[in-house]
């Protein structure tokens, strides 16, 4: 497994003669709150990093940014300080457990949608410096389809939708996929089913969404995997320690590790600029100026 992960890492590094390494942009979203989206994002990033990839988490959950809280860290600077030109992009990158890198959102994303063209260009110039700095930038977006969340999903083109077996969660997950698909055919969706009692429940939940998406949108949505329901997750949240670190042998941690293995093995490297930082920024700026 490690050899295959290293093979993907090498592919990511060599995306063409004019770029040494392409950084992959991924958004994580959910149709509703309370499904464990941010917790999944943090521990998925840590799991990827454990397998040899460099990862940066970008907390883009407007109003409910809590990646730093899950780690028990108080971020001194966030996106707001970058947009106000008080700090550079390197100044606002913090490190959490196991040296995971993250950028706190704070009120910065509210400011982002009101920037002038000149300010947007500065934002793009700063964030573009991250290209090649890490293998993956994972944006933890807000739950539901707010205006800001939509822009991140459309700009990134690769979105992991987190759901649970609860009927309302399934319905809302499908709704967000349907809405985004009606606006853009380029977004690649992948499913993660969280808090499943067993693999059978995970498959049944994912199949419900996949079958309806295929029937009504002719859309194939791969399932990355399932995360088992585990009491140790809530214990880790209370401790403000990621559950993959606090309880590495817990059911949730083991299943997330398997999920990450599948993601790595089935993840194709970007074959052009579409999934890169540059491609993401060009689409994001265009969407923000609309």
From TrEMBL:
Alphabetical list of CDD domains matching this protein: FlhG-like
Keywords, comma-separated and alphabetical: ATP-binding, Nucleotide-binding
Gene Ontology MF terms: ATP binding; ATP hydrolysis activity
PANTHER family: CELLULOSE BIOSYNTHESIS PROTEIN BCSQ-RELATED (PTHR43384:SF4), SEPTUM SITE-DETERMINING PROTEIN MIND HOMOLOG, CHLOROPLASTIC-RELATED (PTHR43384)
Keyword Transmembrane helix assigned: no
GO terms under biological process: negative regulation of cell division
Protein name from the UniProt record: P-loop NTPase
Gene3D superfamilies: P-loop containing nucleotide triphosphate hydrolases
Superkingdom: Bacteria
GO cellular component: cytoplasmic side of plasma membrane; cytosol
Taxonomic lineage of the native organism: Bacteria, Bacillati, Bacillota, Bacilli, Bacillales
């Amino acid at each position: 497994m490690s050899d295959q992960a290293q093979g993907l890492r090498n592919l990511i590094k060599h995306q063409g003669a004019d770029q040494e390494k392409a950084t992959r942009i991924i958004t994580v979203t959910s149709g509703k709150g309370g499904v464990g989206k941010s917790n999944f994002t943090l521990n998925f990033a840590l799991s990827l990093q454990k397998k040899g990839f460099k990862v940066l988490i970008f907390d883009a959950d407007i109003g409910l940014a809590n990646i730093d809280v899950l780690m028990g860290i108080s971020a001194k600077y966030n996106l707001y300080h970058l947009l106000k030109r008080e700090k550079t992009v390197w100044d606002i990158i913090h490190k959490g457990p196991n040296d995971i890198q993250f950028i706190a959102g704070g009120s910065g994303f509210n400011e982002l949608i009101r920037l002038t063209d000149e300010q947007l260009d500065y934002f793009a110039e700063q964030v573009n410096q991250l290209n090649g700095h890490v293998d993956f930038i994972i944006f933890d977006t807000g739950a539901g389809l707010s205006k800001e969340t939509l822009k991140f999903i459309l700009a990134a083109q690769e979105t992991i939708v987190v759901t649970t077996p609860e009927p309302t969660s399934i319905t809302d997950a499908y709704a967000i996929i349907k809405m985004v698909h009606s606006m853009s055919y380029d977004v690649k969706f992948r499913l993660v089913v969280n808090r499943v009692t067993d693999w059978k429940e995970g498959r049944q939940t994912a199949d419900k969404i996949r079958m309806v998406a295929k029937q009504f949108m002719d859309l194939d949505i791969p399932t990355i995997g399932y995360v088992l329901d585990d009491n140790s997750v809530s214990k880790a949240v209370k401790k403000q320690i990621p559950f993959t670190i606090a309880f590495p042998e817990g059911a949730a941690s083991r299943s997330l590790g398997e999920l990450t293995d599948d993601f790595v093995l089935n993840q194709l490297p970007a074959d052009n600029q579409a999934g890169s930082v540059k491609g993401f920024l060009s689409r994001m700026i265009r969407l923000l100026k609309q």
